[in-house]
Amino acid sequence: MVLKHGQDGRCIFSNSRGCGIYETRPSCCRYYPLARVVENDGSVRSAKYYLQRRVDYCEGLGRGPQWTIDVFCEENGLGPYEKANEIFLQIPFAFEAAPIRLRHDKEVQTMIYQAVFDFDRFFEKYGPANLSVPPEDDNEMMTLLTSITLGLIKRTADLESKG
User: Fold this and answer.
1) pLDDT(56) > 70
2) Total-model pTM
3) How does residue 17 score in pLDDT terms, banded at 50, 70 and 90?
4) For residue 77, what are the contacts with CB-CB under 8 A and spacing of at least 6?
5) Residue 94, Cβ neighbours under 10 Å: how many?
6) d(CA 15, CA 121)
């Protein structure tokens, strides 16, 4: 999934005054011009930062203070995003480690898609019976969603290995 851009390549939220959603912008915008990549070698996860290519329409590049990556992340309010990402990234890493037949199963793919992009439908289908609505606290919701999804992946993989 990517943010939609106009025909001129500009973000659809960009206007004559700058970013139209600046205070609520997603983490990819908060990181820009950095890209954060999390790698998983099976036992250790590590985050690496890369500088993205310069785009002509970004007027902020090359201006302002010089920061370390830690200060840049703090100044852009990335702490909560990184915390949620650490919880949530367990899903794609577990899916990637699952047997190949499981990764190609349409039902499993749909479940993973819903877990990542369609929380309401995911909770309707897979949420605990005693939970009528997902938690409002983002970290609680991410933790619950991840826990349910990892359990489903494990149970499905266990059934596959027995069957």
Assistant:
1) no
2) 0.74
3) confident
4) 30
5) 18
6) 33
Half-sphere exposure of 108 (CA within 13 A, CB side): 23
Per-residue burial over 147-159, b if 16 or more Cβ lie within 10 Å, else e, is: ebbbebbeebbee
What are 116-120's contacts with CB under 8 Å, separation 24+?
116/88, 116/91, 116/92, 117/1, 119/145
Please, are residues 144 and 134 in contact by the beta-carbon 8 Å criterion? yes
CB 36 within 8 A of CB 47: yes
Q: Which residue has the tokens 């266990």?
A: 158
Domain assignments of the chain as residue spans, ordered by start:
14-77, 90-162
For residue 161, what are its two tokens? 């290995």
Which tokens in the block code for residue 57? 């329409």
What pLDDT does residue 29 have? 86
Q: How many angstroms separate the CA atoms of 163 and 161, rounded?
A: 6
| Residue 78 burial (CB count, 10 A) | 19
In one-letter notation, the amino acid at residue 96 is E
Q: Which helix (H) or strand (E) holds 14?
A: strand 14-15
Residue 1 has pLDDT above 60, yes or no: no
Query: Which pLDDT band holds residue 156 (cuts at 50, 70, 90)?
Result: confident
Look at the block and give the residue holding tokens 């997902």.
134
